[in-house]
């Protein structure tokens, strides 16, 4: 059987690096198995779901290097969910409940006060047709719960009912259905919650493995029961640990925390995001992978820790620097050209500056320095100005090569008696307007002699 996985975001905002972790776990799992990856938008909540967010999520995934084999929108599949719900109702496995949120909260507190598990007591099953009709005449609309198979003959006498599965990430797992409330599948307004559409689509799409965050572990027991109630075998499940922010807070689409769009706009490379999102919180050392194939070779879901993984932006920036510093010109050329960095000097320029920049876009500032000169004139002491006039008088004629800088500075040292920082700092400031940066032996051959002389203070 071919491996088929799905990534199922709700298009209610931009996805962040925590969502990317789930997408990448599924993508790499299917890639290693030669399987299929389905992007399924869980957009049944019409009030919050937006088409523009769905399009943005697809853009973010493409940026990461993820290309779905199939894209599905749950908002186009309601007939399937209605059919499944009707079948469950006919068998008494989906039953109407009329309690308000306040009434349910009062019952929960009562059970807690009696040291009982705060689960729903199935009081709605005791209502007869007359009582239900009366509640509806009062204007109450039912929500619908799935009757968990955690009892023998009497649903009011639940017994321990263990659901077992071999988790792809965490190994053997067990959930007791008696410790859970019957899950609500349909709201009072008739809209579906996540569970029923998800299970129906997993069956219809032939999903073989569901890999997601470990905040869904308890839900998995009820979902396996629902698969079986719908006459299907449940897929294999895997639950990876979650990423949390450096301050310990969870990541949220609503706050835009560490969104892929924001990271992309900040100049972060996709493989820096992918490498950290996949390897953080695992037994693998976190380092930048060159491409998805390399990352797939290191991907091992079973090596994932059970504890949340703390995401640090500084670690991401360090990975990004390592990628930029190692990036060959052939890989950077098209992007540099889009930034206006092109021509016969472009390759030598890139090789000169890439080790001194944080993001590829940072090269633009150095390109301006090379082609136009420093944006601001540095301030020098009278003594340094005199030194620079003597140094510029010794500037060799072009053409220049990588030895020119050393030949020039040796001549300047011999003429002025200056050496070390006293020699190099004023020269660097005069040539670039910066007190640090690329090796001037690499940068000097890219500069124009007449423009350099024009920079003499």
Give a topology summary.
Layout: E1 4-7, H1 17-33, E2 36-41, H2 51-64, E3 70-73, H3 78-90, E4 94-97, H4 101-113, H5 129-137, E5 143-146, E6 162-167, E7 171-176, E8 184-186, H6 195-204, E9 209-213, H7 217-229, E10 236-240, E11 243-244, H8 260-265, H9 270-279, H10 292-298, E12 309-310, H11 313-326, H12 329-338, H13 346-353, H14 363-372, H15 382-393, H16 404-416, H17 421-432, H18 440-443, H19 449-454
Parallel strand pairs: 1-2, 2-3, 9-10, 11-12
Antiparallel strand pairs: 4-5, 5-8, 6-7
Explain what this protein looks like in three dimensions:
With 457 residues, this protein is α/β, with parallel strands linked by helices. The chain folds into five domains: 4-75 and 167-174 and 191-243, 3-Layer(aba) Sandwich (Rossmann fold); 80-164, Alpha-Beta Complex (Glutamyl-tRNA Synthetase, domain 3); 260-325, Glutamyl-trna Synthetase, Domain 2 (Glutamyl-tRNA Synthetase, domain 2, Orthogonal Bundle); 329-372; 382-454, Orthogonal Bundle (Arc Repressor Mutant, subunit A), CATH 1.10.10.350. 44% of the residues lie in helices and 11% in strands. The protein has 19 helices and twelve strands. The strands form five sheets. It has a three-stranded parallel beta sheet with strand order 1-2-3. The protein has a three-stranded antiparallel beta sheet with strand order 4-5-8. Strand 6 (162-167) and strand 7 (171-176) form a beta hairpin. The longest helix has 17 residues, at 17-33. It is elongated and about 105 Å long. The protein starts with a strand and ends with a helix. It catalyses: tRNA(Glu) + L-glutamate + ATP = L-glutamyl-tRNA(Glu) + AMP + diphosphate. This is Glutamate--tRNA ligase.
């Amino acid at each position: 059987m071919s491996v088929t996985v799905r990534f199922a975001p709700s298009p209610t905002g931009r996805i962040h690096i925590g969502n990317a972790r789930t997408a990448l776990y599924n993508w790499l799992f299917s890639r290693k198995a030669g399987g299929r990856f389905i992007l399924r938008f869980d957009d049944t909540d019409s009030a919050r779901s937006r088409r523009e967010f769905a399009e943005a999520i697809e853009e973010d995934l493409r940026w990461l290097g993820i290309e779905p084999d199939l894209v599905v929108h749950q908002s186009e599949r309601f007939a399937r969910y209605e059919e499944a719900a009707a079948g469950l109702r006919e068998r008494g496995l989906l039953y109407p409940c009329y309690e308000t949120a306040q009434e349910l909260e009062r019952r929960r507190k009562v059970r807690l006060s009696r040291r009982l598990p705060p689960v729903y007591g199935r009081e709605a099953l005791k209502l007869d047709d007359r009582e239900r009709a009366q509640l509806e005449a009062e204007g109450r609309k039912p929500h619908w719960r799935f009757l968990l198979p955690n009892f023998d003959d009497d649903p009011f006498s639940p017994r321990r009912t263990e659901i077992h599965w071999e988790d792809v990430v965490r190994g053997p797992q067990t959930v007791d259905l008696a410790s859970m409330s019957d899950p609500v599948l349909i709201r009072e307004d008739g809209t579906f919650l996540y569970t029923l559409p998800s299970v129906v689509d997993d069956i219809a799409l032939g999903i073989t493995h569901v890999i997601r965050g470990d905040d869904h572990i308890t839900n998995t027991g009820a979902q396996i029961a629902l698969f079986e109630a719908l006459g299907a075998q449940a897929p294999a499940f895997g639950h990876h640990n979650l990423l949390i922010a450096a301050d310990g807070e969870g990541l949220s689409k609503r706050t835009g925390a560490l969104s892929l769009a924001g990271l992309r706009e900040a100049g972060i490379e996709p493989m820096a995001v992918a490498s950290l999102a996949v390897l953080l919180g695992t037994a693998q050392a976190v380092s930048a992978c060159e491409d998805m194939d390399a990352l797939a070779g290191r991907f091992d879901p079973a090596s994932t820790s059970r504890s949340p993984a703390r995401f640090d932006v500084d670690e991401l920036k360090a990975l990004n620097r390592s990628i930029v510093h190692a990036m060959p010109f052939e890989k950077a050329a098209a992007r540099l050209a889009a930034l206006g960095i092109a021509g016969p000097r472009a390759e030598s320029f890139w090789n000169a500056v890439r080790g001194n920049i944080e993001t590829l876009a940072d090269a633009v500032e150095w390109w301006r320095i090379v082609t136009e000169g420093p944006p601001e004139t540095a301030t020098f002491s009278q003594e340094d100005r005199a030194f620079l006039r003597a140094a510029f008088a010794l500037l060799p004629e072009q053409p220049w090569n990588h030895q020119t800088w050393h030949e020039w500075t040796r001549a300047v040292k011999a003429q002025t008696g200056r050496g070390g920082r006293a020699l190099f700092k004023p020269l660097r400031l005069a040539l670039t307007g910066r007190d640090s940066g690329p090796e001037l032996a690499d940068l000097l051959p890219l500069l124009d002699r007449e423009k350099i002389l024009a920079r003499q203070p």
